[in-house]
Design brief:
single chain; 263 residues; alpha/beta; 2 domains; 9 helices; 30% helix; 18% strand
Length: 263
């Protein structure tokens, strides 16, 4: 019973030391198939993992919460000084195939914008039980397509400055029911007021599927009448306030929370 619990969600261990990251990735590498090992050797990548026995458990099968930011970090720590730059993508691809494949089912996925989109082709089964999805607004289409048919419960969208929001994100939202959405922003977007109107207009079209919403800026919320829970967390510049909410109608609203961040 202990093994599934310990390996369920490594992404929460953001305080791991570099030594701990190296040990963890070394255990992961012991799960390589002979085919993967031979492929790496053919590219001049010899990690000397064959001198160690394979684990008694398939630990990766218990890894249900996949944080690719975290996985990228431990890979980068491990390979510093070991691999040439030209071989990094080959190594990382083989590691990621251990986690993203037809034999696995992921419950939670956190992924950077265009993170190795070739791995996400025709693997919808891997995400058929996905409940939580965190991504950047410039996420690749192939990645979105792989989760499009999934009934997720919570979506966190990081709105990055200087990037156009992929419109298919809102198709994903429209396909859900009773979805919880958390919109996170780059502070430069709020200061420059870029891209927010388009995001809000698109979100309005998804009002029937979004019941729980948190946004990090002063919103245009007049049409989000189906909300059950609304959280407002925005930057306070001096005169902005919540008076505008007095004139809005949320007939189904049960929970309203507000945070102010002074800069």
């Amino acid at each position: 019973m202990t093994t599934p619990i310990l390996w369920k969600d490594h992404g929460r261990q953001n305080n791991l030391t570099d030594d701990a990251c190296i040990i963890l990735l070394h255990v992961i590498l012991l799960h390589f198939s002979k085919e993967s090992g031979d492929k790496l050797k053919a590219q001049g990548i010899d990690l000397l993992i064959e001198i160690y026995p394979r684990p008694l458990f398939n630990y990766i099968s218990f890894w249900k919460y996949l944080d690719l930011y975290f996985l990228e970090r431990i890979m980068n720590v491990f390979i510093v000084g070991l691999l040439e730059y030209s071989k990094l993508s080959i190594f990382k691809n083989e590691v990621l195939k251990l986690f993203i494949n037809h034999d696995k089912k992921i419950n939670s996925l956190s992924i950077p914008g265009s993170f190795y989109p070739n791995l996400f082709s025709k693997i919808e089964h891997c995400f058929s039980e996905l409940e939580y999805f965190y991504c950047d607004n410039n996420i690749n289409y192939n990645i979105l397509e792989s989760v499009m048919s999934t009934r997720i419960k919570k979506l966190e969208l990081n709105v990055k400055y200087g990037y156009t929001t992929n419109p298919n994100i809102f198709k994903l939202i429209e396909a859900q029911k009773n979805l919880e959405v958390n919109l996170i922003y780059d502070i430069d977007i709020v200061i420059c007021n870029l891209g927010l109107i388009k995001i809000e207009e698109s979100l309005i079209k998804c009002a029937d599927t979004v019941q729980y919403l948190r946004i990090d800026w002063e919103p245009i919320t007049q049409f989000l009448v189906n909300l059950v829970s609304l959280g407002l967390s925005y930057v306070y510049f001096g005169h902005n306030n919540l008076i505008q909410l007095e004139n809005l109608s949320f007939p189904l609203l049960k929970i309203l929370k507000s945070w102010r961040h002074f800069i």
